[in-house]
Amino acid sequence: MWMWLLLIPAAIVLFLIIICVRAAMFKPKAVASTGKSSAEDGDKSKIKDIGDNEMERAIGHLQEMIKIKTLWNWDNDPEGKPFAQFRAMLPKLYPLIHKNCTYEQIGRSGMLFHWNGKSSENPTVYMSHYDVVPADEELWQKPPYSAIRENGEIWGRGTLDTKATLCAVLETAETLLEQGFVPENDIYFSFGGDEETEATDTRDIVEHLKAKGIKPALVLDEGGAVVEDIFPGVKARTALIGTAEKGMANICFSVSGMGGHASAPPVQTPVGMLARAVTAVEENPLEAHLCEPVLKMLIP
Question: Which pTM was predicted?
Fold first, then answer.
């Protein structure tokens, strides 16, 4: 038995050594540039880099998105007025996308755009969401829905999670459409309005795509952050790639007990029974494991 106990830390050390060695030896593969683009005129034109005008336009559009208070409150606002206002704003900001892409509202607040490419065999899905969590305005230095731009920063709920992602996707597509770009494969933009709560929009969009026989070759959603000084030995800013999504579980506890008087409480009260049940669940989480994408990233 003691030999097995020694093997476990040895295996962990070996695993860490393999990771460190592979990280030290890693060199990005050189990718040859063809100098071609997928424009409608037979790949003769090159895609232009964005300039100051396009950047300012994107910043302004993000500010407009931040100002709309897309908080989930369907009980008091069953029509979801802020969400409808947000969706109604997009055709004004991105006319070419709405002219060249098909659009469907899926579920209560989901949006699905389809950008036809040269082929539909390997479609890509770009995801984001436009609902936000509540903000305690007293704790903010600037109003959370003001979208104030100051010292190179935009103040507002949703700038990070994650109207910025939605804005970046649409700005890129609008700019490429202005240049006559045609993607090699179909592209879908999937935007949910209830990600912070129930996430039914994403579920409905997935079912919608499955029903149409669409199987994406690649799906990109919000992932990790750009961080500094997180990994030992890495001083540069690092963009983290999220390889999995943490799930959740809702558990309902129901406890009943005999009535009585506070002067003669029972040995075990319903509150105590409930507390023990909750503690038992917390003390027995699901086992941690390395999923396949993580394993492939660490040990190809």
Answer: 0.74
